[in-house]
Amino acid sequence: MAKPIEPTPTLKGRDAERLLKSVTKPVRNAKRTALLRASDETYRKLAKK
Question: Which of 8, 11, 15, 17 has the fewest CB atoms within 10 Å distance of its CB?
């Protein structure tokens, strides 16, 4: 039997600031962009089936 899902702890202080910064201004680089494009293409192919 699966374990129950526990609540996610609330982020405070620097951890919260770091998360907000990463969400509002994500780091863009060529390697990450290529990975996201490949992932999107794979999803589109699988969704058609």
Answer: 8
Would you state the structure tokens that stand for residue 27, as one six-digit string?
A: 């780091």
Query: How far out from the chain centre does Cα 36 lie?
Result: 11
Distance of alpha carbon 40 from alpha carbon 26, whole angstroms: 18
- 9 vs 19: CA distance, rounded Å: 13
This prediction has a pTM of 0.46
Contact indicator for 19, 11 with CB cutoff of 8 Å: yes
Instruction: Report pLDDT for 1.
Output: 81
